[in-house]
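Hallway conversation turned thread

IA: we were arguing at lunch whether anyone had actually written out Cell division protein FtsB end to end. Turns out nobody had. So, for the record, here is the sequence (96 residues) and right after it the structure tokens. Reply here if something looks off.
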Amino acid sequence: MKWLLAILTILLVTFQYRLWVGEGSLAEVSRLKRELAEQQEKNAVLRRANRQLLREVRSLKEGTDGVEAKARYDLGMVKEGETLFIFMQPEKDSNE
């Protein structure tokens, strides 16, 4: 009877060790769930960026309006007869 009790105690301690510290422990599962949530959030951000880029590509392929807007915004291009005004913010004095 003592041997049976000793074996059961050893098995209980072994299983408890694996539950709290070993591979597949509760702490590891919690960490993996946290990492999964972080990765899913990153994936959602990247999906939104991809959708925006896809819209931009379609706009540039479909007509000249997208190309014109891109040229005006990125390159500062103007049409013939237009006047471009650039308003600049005054630089802040670093001594103040």
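OS: looked through it. The mean pLDDT is 84.
IA: good, adding that to the notes. The radius of gyration is 32 Å.
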